[in-house]
Design a protein that fits this description.
The structure holds two protein chains of two kinds. Chain A is of the alpha/beta class. Chain A is about 30% helix and about 15% strand. In chain A, strand 3, helix 2 and strand 4 form a beta-alpha-beta unit. Chain B is an alpha/beta fold. Chain B has eight helices and seven strands; from the N terminus they run βααβαβαβαβββααα. The radius of gyration of chain B is 20 Å and the shape is globular. Classes of the chains: A alpha/beta, B alpha/beta. Chains A and B meet through helix 2, helix 3, helix 5, helix 10 and helix 11 of A and helix 4, helix 7 and helix 8 of B.
Chain lengths: ~475, ~200
């Protein structure tokens, strides 16, 4: 029977399929970070249980680490204790930790792929909703809660009910200046933030095939913002070229054998999906969110919508509330919105290609005098690569701050937060109320759009940018 | 896990859609390494003014909802981050069930691991509960997991769907890690058949 990519991945990981119970699924790779794991390890201790496969478990610190000088002690004692707790847990249970001063440290969803830990055909979980990022490699990767983190630590398995499938087919080509981030925001704008709840999305079509691995990761990363359990893209030559030679990727004869398997990881031509969504990439524009949910999004040439024209009463009230929080008036042109802060970072958009795209815009310009802007590379490896290319100089010369790797102001668990009332152009994934700091106002955009806004002080259509 | 069979309690209406887990428990409270004590930080930015005083305009701060143990809210409740601190905070505050037209997947899953029942009802049923909770003082509902029903003992009655196995685990308060460990031989057998492939794939393993 014809199967989708998801079904092939699912079938390959079934340990047990009891009647009237969830399927027991094997997990190939478990990524761990400091925030959602302490209670899981504590649970193991209380239950006198061990970690079944420490060799399939990798940890790093990313969520609450400072992005300032790492030779200094961590100022926040509660944050420092959480990091120390992860250290002790990794030591006690024999888990590899890429600690704060290691060369491999970074956002968990950035380092997995760049180390070659993330490989096609795997099941990958992490106590973080943006685990969907790894689906870009043709993996089944999804976020879990702390109880499930404990479950995977103890058993290397998870009982799961089979999700439904959704195909998002994007034909055509993305125009110049329109990126994977704009595509992701466009999809969420179309299907809504619960449009894919209970589903695993497979992205396909010419526009998806043409994306780099960085772009594919951005797209799969945002799947959760459409409510999806996971997002995935069938691996192809782009995937294999990215992986070859990476530290944990197979080599020599093992590479050839792995490749032969990976090439089978695609949906059969006549495989059926529960839902299909079609988009034309060539009509997409750069996108900017205006509200407090990623689905509240319009093209950069658009205006803040009028809640009076909402589809339902609930939508109208949600829009009114969002506009009040965002301090925006209906029908304001997006390009007339002035910003105070720019954040280029996060597991969505802090890879080398994102930094290159932003630097291309910034080169030769100064940031607006009313804007404070920062770049937080997704990993220490991204930071080093950017420095080798001189991107750090471009950002620093134009007035950006250049920080150490971590989640930073995407969720503001460390000191990197917005002040009340500040308005931020952010390359992150969530514009929720208070997400980047209480009273902070977040507009989600691509790295190019964020960079342009840093220069002009307001949202600017990057398709008209005069590169220097 | 505390078993859940049925629960009767006062309903608090939170008439908002897309209530995300950042709202349920803001990030500054995620640094704690315990499972308990999150209740006082529930909906922190909504319950408290920037100066730390209670915001009397927020619904949960109204005296008539103080002892509420059933929360009713708009669609897509619990969207966003996978933080299990969200159900921990709701449970620690005193909620035993949340009723909404839909829930985000990870959140619903996290709830059921913690004895907090997510109940999905139709939009009009949720609206009816919301209206009753606002118009009547001390509006009570009984959520019966065994029968899969929500009733107010008067006019309102609705039934809900829930996965049979998850229902069973909640009703018995089962440790599902213990259940999975009973399948040790199956897991080991799977690892033997997969091991060659896994070895091919990676130096890590």
């Amino acid at each position: 029977m014809a199967r989708t990519l998801f079904e092939k991945l699912w079938d390959a990981h079934v340990v047990r399929e009891p009647k009237d119970q969830p399927t027991l699924l094997y997990i190939d790779l478990h990524l761990v970070h400091e925030v959602t794991s302490p209670q899981a390890f504590e649970g193991l201790r209380v239950g006198n249980r061990r970690v079944r496969r420490p060799d399939l478990t990798v940890a790093t610190v990313d969520h609450n680490v400072p992005t300032t000088d790492r030779s200094l002690p961590i100022a926040d004692p509660i944050g420092a204790k959480q990091i120390d707790t992860l250290r002790r847990n990794c030591l006690d249970f024999g888990i590899q930790l890429f600690d704060i001063n290691s060369a491999e440290q970074g956002i968990v969803h950035v380092i997995g792929p760049e180390l070659g830990l993330t490989q096609p055909g795997m099941t990958i979980v992490c106590g973080d909703s943006h685990t969907s990022t790894h689906g870009a490699f043709g993996t089944l990767a999804f976020g879990i809660g702390t109880s499930e983190v404990e479950h995977v630590l103890a058993t290397q398995c998870l009982p799961q009910n089979k999700p439904r499938t959704m195909l998002v087919n994007v034909r055509g080509a993305l125009p110049e200046g329109v990126t994977a981030k704009d595509l992701a925001l466009g999809i969420i704008g179309q299907i809504g933030t619960d449009g894919a709840t209970g589903h695993v999305i497979e992205y396909s079509g010419d526009a998806v095939r043409q994306l780099s691995m960085e772009g594919r990761m951005t797209l799969c990363n945002m799947s959760i913002e459409a409510g999806a359990r996971a997002g995935m893209i069938a691996p192809d030559e782009t995937t294999f070229a990215y992986l070859q030679g990476r530290r944990f990727a197979p080599q020599g004869a093992a590479w050839s054998k792995a490749l032969a398997y990976w090439q089978t990881l695609r949906s059969d031509d006549d495989a059926a999906f529960d839902h299909t969504v079609e988009l034309d990439a060539s009509t997409l524009e750069p996108h900017v969110t205006w509200g407090t949910s990623p689905g509240m999004v319009v093209p950069v040439t658009g205006c803040v919508p009028d809640p009076a024209v909402s589809e339902s009463e609930a939508d109208r009230r949600a829009s009114e509330r969002a506009l009040e929080y965002m301090a925006l008036t209906p029908r304001t042109r997006i390009q007339d919105i002035q910003i105070d802060r720019v954040f280029i970072g996060s597991c969505t958009n802090a890879r080398i290609e994102d930094l290159r795209a932003a630097a291309r815009i910034v080169k030769g310009y100064r940031t607006s005098s009313s804007v404070s802007a920062m770049v937080v590379p997704g990993s220490q490896a991204v930071k080093r690569a950017a420095e080798r290319e001189g991107l750090d100089r471009i950002f620093l010369d134009s007035g950006f701050e250049w920080r150490e790797a971590g989640c930073s102001m995407c969720l503001g668990m460390n000191a990197d937060i917005l002040q009340p009332g500040e308005r931020c152009a952010s390359t992150s994934n969530r514009n929720f109320e208070g997400r980047q700091g209480r009273g902070g106002r977040t507009h989600l955009v691509s790295p190019m759009m964020a960079a342009a806004a840093a220069i002009t002080g307001h949202f600017t259509d990057v398709r008209q940018w005069k590169f220097k | 896990m505390k078993p859940f069979r049925n629960h009767q309690g006062t309903v608090a209406p939170l008439d908002r859609a897309n209530v995300d887990t950042d709202q349920i428990i803001p990030k500054q409270f995620l640094k704690r390494i315990e499972r308990t004590g999150f209740g006082e930080f529930l909906f922190y930015d909504w319950r408290f003014l920037p100066n730390g005083e209670l915001d009397s305009s927020f619904v949960l701060n109204e005296s008539r909802y103080r002892g509420a143990s059933i929360l009713v809210a708009g669609k897509n409740f619990g969207c966003g981050s996978s933080r299990e601190h969200a159900p921990w905070a709701l449970g620690d505050y005193g909620f035993r069930a949340v009723i909404a037209p839909s829930f985000a997947d990870i959140f619903a899953n996290n709830c059921m691991k913690n004895g907090l029942l997510p109940v999905t009802l139709d939009e009009d049923e949720v609206t009816a509960i919301m209206d009753n909770a606002r118009s009547m003082d001390n509006y009570n509902l009984t959520v019966d997991l065994e029968r899969r029903t929500v009733t107010d003992g008067r006019d309102f009655s609705a039934s809900f769907a829930i996965d049979d196995f998850q229902r069973h685990c909640m009703m018995e308060g089962l440790d599902d890690i213990g259940l999975t460990l009973l399948n040790e031989s199956d897991i080991a057998a799977y690892e033997r058949t997969r091991s060659e492939l896994i070895r091919q794939q990676s130096k890590l393993f």
